[in-house]
Amino acid sequence: MNRRQFVGLLGSSVAILPFTVRAQQRALPLIGFMSGRSPEDSEHLVAAFRQGLRETGFVEGQNVAVEFRWARGQYDLLPALASELLNRNVAVLAAVGGDPSAQAAKKATATVPIIFGIGADPVGTGLVDSLGRPGANVTGYTLLTSEMEPKRLGLIQELLPNVSLIGALVNPNFGPAARQVQELEAAARTIGKRLFVVKASNDAELSTAFATLLEERVGALLVAADPYFDTQRDRMVALAAERAARDVPISRVCGRRRSD
């Protein structure tokens, strides 16, 4: 090979290289990750997700790519987020951060595999046909946190037996909310306690809810399982502390005593 041929071949290789690299990047399987929560309160969950991928031989950026979408507690955004990811031709869709994320993913596609992570009964919510045979394109896991509200109420009873009025904070936009309220009301009757339910699905409603709890002078507050409330933990603690400083009886959140 003479010098002219070598230079020509090198030039052709350099010209082709960017296209080759882009083709390789496009060839990486793409995972769509959508959550009803926020990235700030989900760092440990994302780290665990990436660790799980590595343990099965998938390293982000090397042999798999991941795109993230976050609803930050605004559940009405989830259908659009699911559509965005599906338009990216994802190979699989991880729908986590609460039941609304999984429900939005299921409604968006009947072909792309969906892996959910929820806190409710997946059979009862219609996500799967059965636990043993999920059916269709959907599978996943549940922590059954939405089924634990009566247990939490019982815990408050054990820790604070003299409290007669207990507040319950529920997100009306959360799928299992109606069942949560029914189960809490039934449990409250069983243990002979009065239950005062307030609802909030955004920041303004959350402030109003705490103001209402202040007026009603509840002695303890149970915060129902909900992804939006997970994103507002610090704010709820601050609101409770602010009202506790005014010498009112809303001095405990979810059965935890004040540090003072």
Description:
With 260 residues, this protein is an alpha/beta fold. It has two domains: 141 residues, 3-Layer(aba) Sandwich (Rossmann fold), CATH 3.40.50.2300; 99 residues, 3-Layer(aba) Sandwich (Rossmann fold), CATH 3.40.50. Helices cover 44% and strands 17% of the residues. The protein contains nine helices and eight strands. Strands 2-1-3-4-5 form a five-stranded parallel β-sheet, covered by helices on one side. A three-stranded parallel β-sheet has the order 7-6-8, sandwiched between helices. Helix 6 links the parallel strand 6 and strand 7. Helix 7 packs parallel to helix 9. The longest helix has 25 residues. The N terminus and C terminus are likely disordered.
What's the arrangement of secondary structure elements?
Blueprint: H1 3-27, E1 30-35, H2 43-55, E2 65-70, H3 78-87, E3 92-96, H4 99-108, E4 114-118, E5 138-142, H5 149-159, E6 165-170, H6 177-191, E7 194-199, H7 203-216, E8 220-223, H8 227-231, H9 233-244
Parallel strand pairs: 1-2, 1-3, 3-4, 4-5, 6-7, 6-8
Helix pairs in contact: 3-4, 5-6, 7-9
> Which stretches of 5+ consecutive residues score pLDDT under 50?
1-17, 19-25, 247-260
CATH architecture of the largest domain: 3-Layer(aba) Sandwich
CATH fold descriptor of the largest domain: Rossmann fold
Structural class: alpha/beta
Number of strands: 8
Strand percent estimate: 15-25%
Largest sheet: 5 strands, parallel
The CATH class label of the largest domain is Alpha Beta
CATH homologous group name of the largest domain: Response regulator
What gap, in angstroms, lies between the N and C termini?
84 Å
Q: What spatial form do the alpha-carbon principal axes imply?
A: elongated
Record the strand order, biggest sheet.
2-1-3-4-5
Proportion of residues in helical segments: 40-55%
Enumerate how many helices there are, as a single number. 9
Radius of gyration: 24 Å
What is the count of structural domains? 2
- H/E series: HEHEHEHEEHEHEHEHH
Mean pLDDT: 81
